[in-house]
């Protein structure tokens, strides 16, 4: 009887949480009622962002892979001198995968091939596409240089200067730009301006650049020596 009584007194106590547990549960319940919807939304958004990022990376990889195949087709067609095949693959690449690096590379490659074939109009179109659509500043600079060369071949002197002066070349390309400007100005009979452009090219090119010798020879042909750099300018 005594044991039964003790058992009966313990059973009701086991059915109740202590005061601290009740306070914790009440706090959690209040917090969830106030912030639960917001937290759920944040979690859903985080998962959506993560899934979207992974999806974008997958899509980007597929784009790059398809563009690489088309680039190889353009390259092979130029090597095999298959003009129509090269232009067909290039057209698909530009229209369907125009934001990829391969589109800019293929356009430069095709433009140079077309210029070698003296297909000036098609070459200029390829280089103009790069200038208008490529995301890489270096690609744009190369396209402007090549396009000016095409214009020089056609003796379009003013157009060549406009092409060179119409783009803010990155620093590493400014020596080549000024050298090309010197070529155009010399063809126009503007010798003093050509000398100034060649000097600017010489200054802009790194001291170890082999092309510096080419610029120096152009100045020598005009009876000039490259101007010495001002004190403290070296390495600037």
Automatic annotation (TrEMBL):
GO molecular function: protein-containing complex binding
Main location: membrane
Location in the cell: Cell membrane
Residue ranges constituting the Ancillary SecYEG translocon subunit/Cell division coordinator CpoB TPR domain according to the UniProt record: 29-224
Gene Ontology CC: plasma membrane
Membrane-spanning residues: 35-53
Membrane topology: Single-pass type II membrane protein
Presence of keyword Transmembrane: yes
InterPro entries, sorted: SecYEG/CpoB_TPR, TPR-like_helical_dom_sf, YfgM
The entry's keywords: Cell membrane, Chaperone, Membrane, Transmembrane, Transmembrane helix
PANTHER family, per database record: ANCILLARY SECYEG TRANSLOCON SUBUNIT, UPF0070 PROTEIN YFGM
Family statement: Belongs to the YfgM family.
Protein name, UniProt field: Ancillary SecYEG translocon subunit
Lineage: Bacteria, Pseudomonadati, Pseudomonadota, Betaproteobacteria, Burkholderiales
């Amino acid at each position: 009887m005594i044991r039964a009584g003790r058992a009966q007194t313990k059973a009701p106590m086991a059915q109740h949480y202590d005061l601290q547990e009740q306070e914790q549960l009440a706090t959690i319940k209040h917090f969830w009622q106030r912030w639960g919807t917001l937290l759920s939304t944040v979690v859903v958004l985080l998962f959506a962002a993560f899934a979207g990022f992974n999806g974008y990376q997958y899509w980007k990889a597929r784009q790059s892979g398809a563009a690489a195949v088309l680039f190889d087709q353009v390259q092979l067609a130029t090597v095999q001198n298959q003009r129509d095949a090269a232009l067909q693959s290039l057209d698909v690449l530009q229209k369907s995968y125009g934001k990829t690096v391969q589109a800019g590379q293929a356009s430069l490659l095709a433009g140079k091939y077309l210029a070698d074939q003296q297909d000036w109009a098609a070459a200029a179109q390829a280089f103009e596409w790069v200038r208008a659509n490529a995301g890489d500043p270096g690609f744009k600079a190369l396209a402007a240089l090549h396009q000016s060369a095409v214009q020089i071949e056609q003796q379009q002197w003013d157009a060549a200067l406009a092409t060179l002066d119409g783009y803010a070349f990155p620093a590493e390309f400014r020596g080549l730009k000024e050298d090309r400007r010197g070529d155009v100005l010399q063809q126009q009979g503007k010798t003093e301006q050509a000398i100034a452009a060649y000097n600017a090219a010489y200054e802009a090119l790194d001291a170890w650049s082999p092309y510096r010798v080419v610029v120096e020879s152009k100045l020598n042909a005009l009876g000039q020596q490259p101007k010495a750099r001002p004190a403290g300018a070296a390495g600037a």
